[in-house]
Amino acid sequence: MRAIGFTRPSKVEVGWFAFAAANVAAMALWPSWETIPFHFIWVSLTLLYGFRIWRPSVTYLVLATVMAVTGLLISADAFNGEQLWGELFEVPLMSAMFLAMVWHARRRQDALLAVELQAEERASMLKRQERFLHDVSHELRTPVTIAQGHLEVLRRANGDGPPQEIDVALDELERIERILERLLLLAKADHPDFVVFGQIDPEVFLEDVLMRWSEVAPRVWRLGRVPAGILHVDEEALRIALDALLENAVKYTDERDAIELRARSAGGSLVIEVEDEGPGIPPEALGHIFDRFARADSARTRAHGGVGLGLAIVDAIAKAHGGTCAVRTAQSGSIFSLRLPRFTPARAHAERKEAQPLVEL
Fold first, then answer.
1. What digits encode the pLDDT tens for the residues 88-133?
2. Mutual orientation of helices 202-214 and 235-251 as an angle, nearest 10°?
3. What's the CA gap between 316 and 292, in Å, rounded?
4. 205-243 residue pLDDT tens
5. N or C: which end of the chain has fewer CB within 10 A?
6. Are 322 and 331 in contact (CB under 8 A)?
């Protein structure tokens, strides 16, 4: 609904004025039947106002004109004895009903304008945030790369026994580089080309992901049941999401703890789950753990090298695929799940019958 002032009348408004004039003429020509065109005028005016909301000055001018014209015609007929004087009370009654409708319509219009304004402000804020993340990530990447290069030269210059400080500095720079990569990824999360769909075999894909992690992190790694079929997904994006989930599981588990990667079919979707035997998620953190920079335990974040971006990336990738991610507490540890649509199960292949440890280091 759009408020108008003294602008050029639309075809609907011109048509109403013609319709109202015809009904006024009918009231003058057939006094004994004038209540019918009288109500036609008011009902049509109400319908017209529903299409276009005028400014208060225009609204009151039209209302006063309709009241004056219809009131004068009914008064004249009452003086001539062709109408009862009680019919005249319908003019203020219909006016009051119209004003009540005008009040509600303007309140609705004001609410819609407020919502539109908030939406525009939010879109502008998100755009500025995306630009900021993109610019900061690019600006910081150059000095990080230069610092890494100089430290590598210094390490080689010190021979086989580089100072421990150099190793610490290189580790911290690698950590900063990973943060920058994730910031850039989050900055592109709302772009239409954020994901490029292809086809993968979940059994082969999950086994490959698990094998890579088993080679770099000493845990009891298990591959659980995985349904056979085809998943339409961005393979690289899914690998990034699973790496973030598995990295999170490694951070909060010890060498003797088990981490299981499994999947199940659920109504045309594939639900991939990562279960660990870590300390679990505090109940107060479950509702915001996938938010950017959110942490389940801020006291342990520095020790484990995270800043709360990994799970935010999982959430962004899931939403880009039209899916969801969730977490729940298990008997011992946590279970993170990633639900992805566009899964076609292959009934000819049997699912894995039981979980089995692939690597135990």
1. 677 777 777 777 777 767 777 778 888 888 888 877 776 776 676 6
2. 40
3. 10
4. 999 999 989 888 889 999 999 999 999 999 988 988 898
5. C
6. no
Q: What is the DSSP string of 173-220?
A: HHHHHHHHHHHHHHHTTTSTTS---EEE-HHHHHHHHHHHHHTTS-SE
Helix (H, G, I), strand (E, B) or coil at 134: helix
Residues in the chain: 361
CA 38, chain centre distance (Å): 50
Tokens of 221: 């790694």
Least Cα distance to 17 among 48, 56, 38, 61 occurs for 48
Q: Which residues contact 339 (CB under 8 A, 6 or more apart)?
A: 266, 269, 270, 271, 318, 323, 324, 325, 326
How do beta strands 258-266 and 220-223 pair? parallel
Cite the DSSP H helix spans in the chain.
Answer: 11-29, 35-51, 56-79, 90-157, 164-187, 202-214, 235-251, 301-304, 310-320
Cβ-based burial of 241 (10 A; exposed 0-12, middle 13-18, buried ≥19) = buried
Helices 164-187 and 90-157 pack at an angle, to 10 degrees, of 150
What is d(CA 241, CA 200) in angstroms, rounded to the nearest whole number? 15
Q: Which two tokens stand for residue 133?
A: 């993340």
78, pLDDT greater than 50:
yes
Contacts with 346 (C-beta within 8 Å, 6 or more apart), sequence order = 227, 228, 229, 230
d(CA 45, CA 56): 15
